[in-house]
């Protein structure tokens, strides 16, 4: 009888440890996301999409546009100036705002 209880205890203990081991193995899996760096090429201001021009004029009326760039991902970077301050504003091709950054002197 003692032998039967010991075998039962061992089987139960092994049964409980397998799912934990599987869960631990799953938790160890990692995934990495590689972001490609977007490169920008200077374009003429006249070639900016109307949606981007509209977004700039509505959101940054106090700024003047100095340069425009198109990204390798289809986005647009517009360099704006106001009171000796330059900012780079990013839009998608639909004119939707993506982000704004302080413009580097090399950009403008």
Automatic annotation (TrEMBL):
<feature type="signal peptide">
    <location>
        <begin position="1"/>
        <end position="24"/>
    </location>
</feature>
<keyword id="KW-0732">Signal</keyword>
<protein>
    <recommendedName>
        <fullName>Beta-lactamase-inhibitor-like PepSY-like domain-containing protein</fullName>
    </recommendedName>
</protein>
